[in-house]
Amino acid sequence: MAKERLDKVLGNFGLGSRSDVKKEIHQGLVKVNGVVIKDPGFKVTLTDEVIYYDETLARKDFYYFMMNKAPDCITATEDPREKTVMDYLKERHQNMSLFPVGRLDKETEGLLLFTTDGTLAHYYTSPKHFVEKEYYAEISDSVTNEDILNFEKGIVLDDGYKTLPAKLAIPDPTNPTIVTVWLKEGKYRQIRRMFQSLGKEVTYLKRMKMGNLELDPSLALGSYRELSEAEVALLKEKTPVIQ
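The structure corresponding to this sequence follows.
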């Protein structure tokens, strides 16, 4: 089983910079398996019990969080001018090297995944895997059966790119301005641009699902939480390269 330095473990858990946690280790504030350890270079495994102050750390190989993204921030780890999704994370989680998986444009709400797992993130963002995402959308004009057929054939965007076939449905025929969209690619502002090519405007857009993972309906805008073990299993269900 892999071993890591104690100061690195605490740093990766978001408990402070490497220099900060070294000081706390030297001060005797950390225990491993019930024993005070004052050596920052002491090696630990995932099976070792690490107690920081009085908190037993629930350590894992990788961490996974979901956010209900608010429509006032961009999907980036940092930006000199714009508020980013990282600004919604607590300082401790900002320090954990979490990063967002894929992008939602500034105005779009909904499911955004954060992780420290680069392999899984690559799977969900790589075009060759075609991971399906589901969206709820409100449109300026009534959506027609012809629009549904156009989505199925692929739509030529303003830059000349023809999208992959996508699915479009009208859940309630009495309200044809509210639709569900399923995509297997993620070009810049793609759903908005697809409807623009049809002469319509997306007035509201929210991502509801990525692969098998659904947005928790109880999460308020801008809120986030760690995924349950069952949700992590759902994330990896269609990712055979991840063990």
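The first strand starts at residue 4 and ends at 5.
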